[in-house]
Write a structure and sequence with these properties.
Layout: H1 3-17, E1 28-39, E2 45-60, E3 68-75, E4 78-85, E5 91-99
Antiparallel strand pairs: 1-2, 1-5, 2-3, 3-4
Organism: Candidatus Falkowbacteria bacterium RIFCSPHIGHO2_02_FULL_45_15
Function: This protein is located at the 30S-50S ribosomal subunit interface and may play a role in the structure and function of the aminoacyl-tRNA binding site.
GO molecular function, one term: structural constituent of ribosome
């Protein structure tokens, strides 16, 4: 292959592997799409995309290589928390559904059963 073709292929691979990583902040309701590999009864490996939707309790280490964020939801009366590495190759997409106005960097108090309703950004309180 010529040098031009090699550089062209490298550029294409670079742009395909780059993902748009959104700014995930505490108080956001997000839907995280993650690739999951499973083995069926025949022994064949299948890959599917599963999403986990919940509220972001904490985002740690900014945009570093080891950055992560915690997502929490209540499923059938049981609280479920997942920690996602931000730069994980298994995460295909992060959809931001809502953004709440928060005054804390970590919202762990929501796990303890505080039924406080977070106000959405731009929402005014009732007089």
């Amino acid at each position: 292959m010529s040098d031009e073709v090699k550089t062209e292929v490298k550029e294409k691979v670079k742009t395909e592997t780059k993902r748009a990583i959104s700014d995930v902040k505490p108080g956001m309701t997000v839907r995280v799409y993650q690739k999951i590999k499973e083995q069926n009864a025949k022994g064949e490996w299948k890959e599917r995309v599963q999403y986990f939707e919940g509220i972001v309790l904490a985002a740690k280490h900014g945009r570093e290589a080891g950055a992560s964020f915690n997502v929490y939801k209540v499923s059938d009366g049981v609280g479920v928390e997942k920690i996602f590495p931000l730069h994980s190759p298994t995460i295909t997409k992060i959809e931001i559904k809502k953004q709440a106005k928060v005054r804390r960097a970590k919202l762990y108090f929501l796990k303890r059963g505080h039924n406080k309703r977070l106000k959405l950004k731009g929402e005014k309180s009732k007089p």
